[in-house]
Amino acid sequence: MVRFLPKKFPGKVAEPMIPFYAAGLIVLWAVNSGANAMMASDEFKNDPRNPNAKADSKPAQH
């Protein structure tokens, strides 16, 4: 039988990557917190692209 895949590599893969996974989660948290803070700021809270913007009393025109 011909083996298409090489032998299993005996080294650790996930354990040395734990600091990178942790740093990725911290960066994602920081970006999310920054985006939420910007959406709540005075400059952007009434922007129509903001999902948290107050809806106008006018109906949407299609």
Which features would summarize this protein structure in a list?
single chain, mainly alpha, 62 residues
Structural notes for this entry:
With 62 residues, the chain is an all-alpha fold. The protein has one helix at residues 18-39.
Explain briefly what this protein structure is.
This protein is an all-alpha fold. Helices cover 35% and strands 0% of the residues. This is ATP synthase subunit J, mitochondrial.
- Residue stretches low in confidence (pLDDT < 50, at least 5 long) are none
Radius of gyration over C-alpha positions, nearest whole angstrom:
24 Å
CA-based shape: elongated
> Biggest β-sheet, characterized?
none
Number of strands: 0
Integer average pLDDT:
83
Number of helices: 1
Helix residue percentage: 25-40%
Strand content: under 5%
Structural class: mainly alpha
CA(first)-CA(last) distance? 65 Å
Helix and strand string, N-terminal first? H
List the helices and strands and how they pair.
Layout: H1 18-39
